[in-house]
């Protein structure tokens, strides 16, 4: 055996060594992967699909707009735009109802990848609990607003295109109570959203993991 193929190594035309396996008289190249990578990693599916990411960011945009909008109309800070802002608040709330249902159905049908194993179990439990509380409140909140408007006797006109039918008989006292509950739920949602954003930034800036990037790039 020549020196060029000694000890199971072969020199290519450029003079660089290639690892080979020798079986009889045939020398077969052995594929090598760079350190820290694998074939499974290269074809691993995203943590969140493109549909899940689009639904998330559309919902995030609507919710982040609703929080200051609700604060303004609840305190009559809108001035001459008060009625316009109130109608916008109602329209966005009506849009959130089908979107949150779509998000929940899609998440059930296409669950995301689990959180990284190095995240403590108590943190994972807290994250899941916060997510499901937020989902539940986002589902309940527009329904409470719809019932409150129906009890007040005021129709909900969605972006000037159509009206939602009333789902409760007129009862002004009950309407006032529901609007108070609506405001309380809105405050809780704002708090959960703040915690959610803070947690995402903590993962990205402090832990420097991919938890935030999973929802941006998959």
Care to describe what's here?
By secondary structure, the protein is mainly α. Helices cover 59% and strands 9% of the residues. It has six helices and five strands. It has helices spanning 39-42, 50-74, 82-109, 121-152, 172-207, 211-214, and strands at residues 9-11, 17-23, 26-29, 156-158, 162-164. The strands form two sheets. Strands 1-2-3 form a three-stranded antiparallel β-sheet, with no helix packed on it. Strands 4-5 form a two-stranded antiparallel sheet. Helix 2 (50-74) packs across helix 5 (172-207) and helix 4 (121-152) runs antiparallel to helix 5. It is elongated, with a radius of gyration of 28 Å.
- Low-pLDDT stretches are 1-42
Radius of gyration: 28 Å
Question: Helical segment tally?
Answer: 6
The proportion of residues forming helix, as a percent range, comes to: 55-70%
Output the structural class.
Answer: mainly alpha
**Major beta sheet, specifics?**
3 strands, antiparallel
The shape, in one word, is: elongated
Order of helices and strands: EEEHHHHEEHH
| Beta-strand content estimate | 5-15%
Q: Would you count the extended β strands for me?
A: 5
Provide mean pLDDT, rounded.
83
Strand order of the largest sheet: 1-2-3
Instruction: State the separation between the terminal residues, measured CA to CA.
Output: 52 Å
Give a summary of the structure in a few sentences.
By secondary structure, the chain is mostly helical. It is built from six helices and five strands.
List keywords for this structure.
mainly alpha, 3-stranded antiparallel β-sheet, 6 helices, 218 residues, two-stranded antiparallel ribbon
